[in-house]
Design a protein that fits this description.
This protein is α/β, with parallel strands linked by helices and about 140 residues long. The protein has helices at about 5-20, 40-45; strands at about 35-40, 55-70, 75-80, 90, 110-120, 120-130. A five-stranded mixed barrel has the order 2-3-4-6-5. InterPro entries: Protein_unknown_function_OB.
Length: about 140
Amino acid sequence: MSNLKYIIALLFSTFSLNSCGDILRDDISTLESVAQLSADELISALENNENFNREKILSVKGTLVETNTRNDHINFLIKGNSNQNHYIICEMNHSFDEQGKDFTPGDTVIIKGVLKGYLNDAVLLNCVLENPDKK
């Protein structure tokens, strides 16, 4: 994967901390998401410039492409089932522990996070896994 995706995610998270306010400090695992979508549905909506719940909590189901650690954050990169070249970058919540180590590329994950924006990829911040048990 290109480092450009991670640079974009870092820029979004750096400039967004003030704009999202408390929602990035909250434990969103206890909060309801405003929508449950597949990764393909989210990417399609954002590509079509739909005014789509930015800075709201979304639940997104997709295929795990990779996990990595950048700037003391664990990040998940997920995609949909279509052949789109767009991904969803999920910066995991600081309280995220070792539960992600059980997932491998190709696994289906359900991530809940705050939609920050979209350039070439969607960016979700403060993410938690909604399916902590591998299925």
